[in-house]
Amino acid sequence: MSSEPGSQELIARVLECARTAGATATDAVLVENESMETRIRGDEVDRVTQARERCLGIRALSGGNGAGLRTAITSTSDLSIEAVEKLVAETVDLARQTAPDPAAGLPEEDPATEVPDLGLLDPADRNVAVEARIEDARRAERAARESDVRIDNSEGSEAGSHFAKVHYGNSVGFSGSYESAFHSLYSQPIARENGSMQRDSWFTIGRRLADLEDAAEVGRRAAQRALGRLGARRVPTCEVPVIFDAVTAASLVGQLASCLSGYSVYRKMTFLESRMGDAVAPEFVTIVDDGRLQGGLGSKPFDGEGLATRRNILVDRGRLSSWLLDSYSGRKLDLPSTGNAARSAGSAPGVSATNLWIEPGEARLEELIQDTPRGLLVTELIGMGFNPVTGDYSRGAAGFWIEAGEIAYPVEEITVAGNLGDMLMNIDAVGSELLWRSRIAAPPLRIARMTVAGE
Question: Does the pLDDT at position 3 exceed 80?
Answer without folding.
Answer: no
